[in-house]
Amino acid sequence: MPPTNPQHTNPQHTDPQQIFRRYVDEVLNKGKMDVFDELVDQNYVGHEPQLQGGRGNRDHAKQGIQEVRTGAPDVHYTIDDIQDQGNGQLSVRWTAHGKHQGHLMGKAGSGKQVRISGTATVRIQNGKIVEGSSQFDQQDLMRQLS
User: Fold this and answer.
1) Half-sphere exposure of 20 (CA within 13 A, CB side)
2) Most buried among 38, 46, 86, 143, by the most CB within 10 A?
3) What is the mean pLDDT of residues 90-116?
4) How far apart are CA 123 and CA 97, in angstroms?
């Protein structure tokens, strides 16, 4: 008897790398927040040192994406390297660039092109992003925004 749930037959719905690539392409690069809602688990935990207590949730992640897209509407993220560590865990090196056109990290739009690179660790279970952490040089970004 064939499976009744098409998600179980489509590797894109379960392959952690494909899920994360879709997240970068559709959410980070195109701002499709409906895809964020689809791919990010309701109980998402973000390990973000800039937040008080170092932990965030799904709402913090969504707000962060919206802040970046407001400050640099043309932002484009590139996955430089992605390694599957097993059990849904991914290690990622990424680069982002865009024009600083709006309010970002306390700075009004400068019109400058900015470029940063960083790393991320992401955990995916049952086709959803359940945990993540991203690091980049915030001081370098602040210098570029000034």
Assistant:
1) 28
2) 46
3) 96
4) 25
- Quote the tokens at residue 133: 């952490």
| Alpha helical stretches, state H, 12-78 | 16-22, 33-39, 58-71
Query: Which pLDDT does position 12 carry in this prediction?
Result: 54
Please name which of 89, 94, 84 lies closest in space to residue 130, comparing C-alpha atoms.
89
21: left (phi over 0), alpha (psi -120 to 50) or beta: alpha
Q: Which of 49-58, 77-86, 132-141 has the highest mean pLDDT?
A: 77-86
The domain of 88 spans 10-145
What CATH number should be reported for the domain holding residue 30?
3.10.450.50
Q: C-alpha dihedral over 133, 62, 76, 84, to 10 degrees?
A: 40
Question: In whole angstroms, what is the distance from residue 145 CA to residue 94 CA?
Answer: 19
Determine the straight-line distance between the first and last CA of the chain, rounded to whole angstroms: 62
Confidence of residue 43 (pLDDT cuts 50, 70, 90): very high
